[in-house]
Design goal:
274 residues; alpha/beta; 8-stranded mixed beta sheet
Length: 274
């Protein structure tokens, strides 16, 4: 479920508390949002001069984003921890403590860690996602370019629910490219990456919330994992596109469950068959 509203207005929607909150917050790039992106120039070629995106931020709403209000929402909407004795090893893995994952810029991390502590999220694990490509393509042959994304796992006192199937999970992960999903949002995260994170920190039927839903990819990933998903997106165009994608995903899942195949999707590819 996605709402065209600000996450601050969550009380009117009676949303259940979350096992996991995933959010991609503004990186505070300001007017340099496209500075390392070919879109700064017309047709991506600097010989054509600057495009309409030169010197612009990604979204006008970025200037209004208030990290403290965001952190308050997350601390409020994460489910309470079960009061049990601290245990180690296999017994601890059966715990159900919640957590949140915040995608952020490298230099935002310490600020967010300290801010989270003010709202009871006293612990963190940093995440690094390694890409095999870089968005910093301008003058790429003249400097070291970035190919990493960063995030923080924030949690209260107990280690969060951890479903690793006995495997070691490193805090440096590969970033899968998503060449299948429609590109709706400039900072859209890959569905497969989000599925991986959701499957590690939740079980089927758990609640996942994205307060800054954007393209809706978090909610799509949650639906594919059998989780209950809720999100907020204030921008009309992004909301409409995200809702369409989420609704189509729910239809596909339901058709596969009932018919054994995605009838609607197949009818788009082969309309004469249906």
């Amino acid at each position: 479920m996605i709402y065209r509203d600000h996450f601050q207005n969550y009380k009117g929607y009676a949303i259940p508390k979350a096992q996991l909150i995933i959010a991609d917050i503004p990186y505070n790039l300001g007017n340099n949002a496209y500075a390392s992106n070919p879109s700064w120039y017309k047709d991506g070629n600097n010989a054509n001069g600057e495009s309409a995106l030169a010197g612009k931020s990604f979204f006008d709403t970025d200037d209004d984003f208030r990290p403290a209000e965001f952190m308050h929402f997350c601390s409020t909407m994460l489910k309470a921890e079960t009061k049990t004795k601290k245990v180690e090893g296999e017994a601890r893995q059966k715990g159900d403590a919640p957590c949140m994952i915040v995608f952020c810029a490298f230099d935002q991390q310490m600020y967010l860690i300290e801010l989270a502590k003010r709202y009871g999220l006293n612990n963190y694990i940093n995440l690094v996602f390694r890409k095999n490509f870089s968005a910093q393509v301008l003058k790429a042959n003249m400097k070291v370019v970035g190919n990493c994304e960063y995030a923080l796992i924030l949690y209260r006192d107990k280690l969060p629910k951890f479903r690793n199937n006995g495997k070691m999970i490193f805090n440096c992960m590969d970033w899968p490219r998503d060449n299948v999903s429609e590109k709706i949002h400039p900072t859209q995260k890959p569905v497969e990456l989000l599925k991986t994170l959701i499957e590690i920190f939740t079980d089927k039927g758990d609640v996942v919330i994205d307060p800054c839903a954007g393209s809706g990819s978090t909610l799509v990933a949650a639906e594919r994992c059998g989780r209950k998903s809720y999100g907020f997106e204030i921008k009309k165009d992004f909301y409409n596109a995200a809702k369409k994608w989420i609704d189509e995903e729910k239809t596909t899942i339901q058709e596969i469950k009932e018919l054994g195949f995605a009838k609607t999707e197949l009818s788009k590819l082969n309309p004469t068959l249906f």
